Amino acid sequence: xxxxxxxxxxxxxxxxxxxxxxxxxxxxxxxxxxxxxxxxxxxxxxxxxxxxxxxxxxxxxxxxxxxxxxxxxxxxxxxxxxxxxxxxxxxxxxxxxxxxxxxxxxxxxxxxxxxxxxxxxxxxxxxxxxxxxxxxxxxxxxxxxxxxxxxxxxxxxxxxxxxxxxxxxxxxxxxxxxxxxxxxxxxxxxxxxxxxxxxxxxxxxxxxxxxxxxxxxxxxxxxxxxxxxxxxxxxxxxxxxxxxxxxxxxxxxx
Amino acid sequence: xxxxxxxxxxxxxxxxxxxxxxxxxxxxxxxxxxxxxxxxxxxxxxxxxxxxxxxxxxxxxxxxxxxxxxxxxxxxxxxxxxxxxxxxxxxxxxxxxxxxxxxxxxxxxxxxxxxxxxxxxxxxxxxxxxxxxxxxxxxxxxxxxxxxxxxxxxxxxxxxxxxxxxxxxxxxxxxxxxxxxxxxxxxxxxxxxxxxxxxxxxxxxxxxxxxxxxxxxxxxxxxxxxxxxxxxxxxxxxxxxxxxxxxxx
Lengths: 254, 249
Description:
The structure holds two protein chains of two kinds.
Chain A: H1 6-10, H2 19-32, H3 45-52, H4 56-68, E1 72-75, E2 81-84, H5 93-100, H6 104-128, H7 131-146, H8 150-167, H9 171-196, H10 198-213, H11 217-249
Antiparallel strand pairs in A: 1-2
Chain B: H1 9-45, H2 59-66, E1 78-85, E2 97-101, E3 109-110, H3 129-135, E4 141-148, E5 154-165, E6 168-178, H4 179-191, E7 195-201, E8 206-209, E9 226-230, E10 236-245
Antiparallel strand pairs in B: 1-2, 1-6, 2-3, 4-5, 5-6, 7-8, 7-10, 9-10
């Protein structure tokens, strides 16, 4: 069942090493993807630590990092606790800062990884999708066409790509798609839309859905792969422009 | 001459097994539906609409059904259980679910309640097949197998039934089951069938199979020599392919 149950998957025990990182990443993923709602209160630290199978110390460190990213707000006193904060725009300052933390080769590498996943899920989805898998994709296309703000389009774009991954019937690929989306998805699609224009982006999405719907696996794979490569190219351009601004603003001899 | 597979005992046993597992989950879901009705009707008898707190009354039942020992037949196969309200049913929580999942520690965990689709791209649950099936009149809906990317992070089913008060739809009682649980419960019977055999849903998606030629998640679009065996009144069937050993597929 799909909805709120995210909370459960999110709070399942973390058993890898680097527990603070793992907790931080998982919570960042779900918040930036909008799987938790803005203003939603997290369970108490003790409860959350228990559910995720980590110590309260580990959990606190992860929550601290989320606060620093502006994804969590803590209110003291009666009715206090930790509340989810969803950035209002995909290019909120914290995300732009995140982009600055990547070298262009790292963005290219992210694109390489994402292209591999996006092509593979589109290929498998074209072979395996049934009408019940296509219905959510078509709904997302319609909602994206109607969405008024870049932020809501970015969120729908993320959902759209996760729905294709789910249509592949591979839980692992869907998990990869989610973590890639969570890492840079909103920035990626926003940069893509700014460079190509909304209509062209919609057309690319429609073409991918039609290739999947018609069972043309090679075509779906090709389109989805290039969709990601185009987008990552635009994101790298944004990163380079951002770098120029940084350099322009710097003191000459510093 | 090809044997009449319908009368073959191994096939009958597999059909019965699949039916028993699926019916077992629906029996659990039916208990959730009844418990929900009890809560809603009690509230209305006292002259008010049900509130979110009333549905906490489901918890003793949900907890006992989620306790793995009671589900030894399914090896703890229920991965989530509860009630999802039709939007607006509860005056205090327009979008609501009372949903619990088992954990390795044995203590079920509840899911959050704030489901306003206005602030999230994901939560308008009225579009999902497990909701639209019951809300449009189906008595028993089996969704999947599908990638449950928000909940179990895994591949499985959702079973759902409508909850109605005097004919009016008020929500869905449902259960999740992972494919892994279903497969391990059915595998012994499938292996005893001497030919290629697999279970498909009504759309043709393969659920589990006794050969690597037909894998879970792929789509069965027909093949020569096929016999389709209905599984009671469930939207599933067992497919056998005569004249082929199961390893050769």
